[in-house]
Amino acid sequence: MDPSLPIQPGDVITYRLSVTNVGVGAAFDVDVSDELPAEFLYVPGSTNATWPSGSYTADPAGAPGPDLAWDTSAELWPDETLTLEFQAVVTSAVVQGEVYTNSMCATGTEGDGTPIPPDMSATYLADTDPDDCSSVSHVAAAVPALSVDKEIVDVIRGGASIWPTDAVEPGDLIHYRFTIRNVGDGIATTSTSPTSFPRALSTTPTTRRDLYGG
Fold first, then answer.
1. Alpha-carbon distance 23 to 30, whole Å?
2. Average of pLDDT values for 156-178?
3. How far apart are CA 166 and CA 113, in angstroms?
4. Is 49 in a helix, a strand, or coil?
5. How far apart are CA 196 and CA 192, in angstroms?
């Protein structure tokens, strides 16, 4: 999906994280973690991680979330990059207008097993992220909400209106009106209005309109 568009339930988002060794020595045991919004779920089987000397496709620990961890144990030499992609689905728990942030981080060790400090910008100017993390945010789209009202607007008997009336007879033509309002903030693209009538009534042909707009 276009990352600039608001999200809504059912959307499947593909995330990509790139981890580059900007130092002059090798980075070992490079692993990736992710903190999904609680309203998102990891899609099983969607992991695809690659780097010059290997690949990784196993689902992360903690799936379906929100805290995910990929034990790739990758080895990156200077200027090499690990790229990890995975998918998450947006659940119906999202609230319109709310902002949801997904954060991913990477860790690694030096050759002696010492953890690589997150901020090495004093030594390597190419280290532009002080925490070895990156995040992206989404805004939940507005959602529609329909209000339906049904009323009798006329009763025709013998070609003439007898409305208002409290009683009808066989042969009377009853004119109903359905009013459908979108009382939400999103756009409703299609609307149908199923209804039921007493067994003594039959319907006359009519048309159904799609509902557009808010």
1. 14
2. 91
3. 88
4. strand
5. 13
Task: Give the predicted TM-score (pTM) of the model.
Answer: 0.66
Amino acid at 134: S
Mean pLDDT of the chain: 86
Q: Are 193 and 147 in contact (CB under 8 A)?
A: no
Confidence band for 208, pLDDT divided at 50, 70 and 90: very low
Number of folded domains in the chain?
2
| Closest alpha carbon to 96 in 145, 136, 135 | 145
Assess whether 149 and 205 both reside in one domain.
yes
Q: Specify whether 122 is located in the same domain as 182.
A: no
Q: Flag the least confident range among 65-69, 92-96, 105-109.
A: 92-96
Q: How far is CA 63 from the centre of its chain?
A: 17
- Residues of the domain holding 148: 144-214
Span between the terminal Cα atoms of the chain, in Å: 24
187 domain residue, yes or no? yes
Q: Which residue has the tokens 């949801």?
A: 100
Residues 107 and 187 in one domain: no
